[in-house]
Fold:
Amino acid sequence: MTLTKTNVFSEIATVINTFNFESITAERKIILQPLVDYIQTKAADQQEIRLNLICTHNSRRSHLSQVWAQTAAAYYDIKNVFCYSGGTEATAMFPMVSKTLAKQGFEIRTIAEGSNPVYSIKYAENEHPVIGFSKTYHDSFNPQDEFVAIMTCSQADGGCPFIAGAEKRIPITFEDPKAFDNTPQQAEKYEERSLQIATEMFYVFSQIK
Structure:
């Protein structure tokens, strides 16, 4: 497969250039491998690749994972990749998530206000934005079948042993930056978690042939 990289915004490209796949431990790469295999099989068969990234409240880690996975797919020119996110319950995308992504170069627009705002999250001039808002994983906005369920938090992973409609269920859990909310380290820890998720999602898509 020839890679013709999408021209992501320059600030995002600068962040991408800092990624070091060698920083991902061998144990972590074993955890990521089932997702590599799933995407590779779909790509080889020229099938649509639907990733539903799931966390308890669909407020932090699942959104970061969705945005970075979609960006990575475009960057490596992996076709027909559609990334979604959901929770076991709907709340709202935590404001620090959009602030963190904006700092890392994404163009963020609030397209609907309210208790569960809707955001447009763009990573490139000519690519469709990711639409970010909190919803359940089985919400009608998300695919109902022929998708992989990626469990991004241990609570959702333990609480949802079965995801209806999923072809495969893969736990790839991340520590919750919520633990640092309203502390002096909040911004730093959200950025750190975002960069970990980004590095791992880019590693996954870099492996697709």
About this structure: The chain has six helices and seven strands. The radius of gyration is 16 Å.
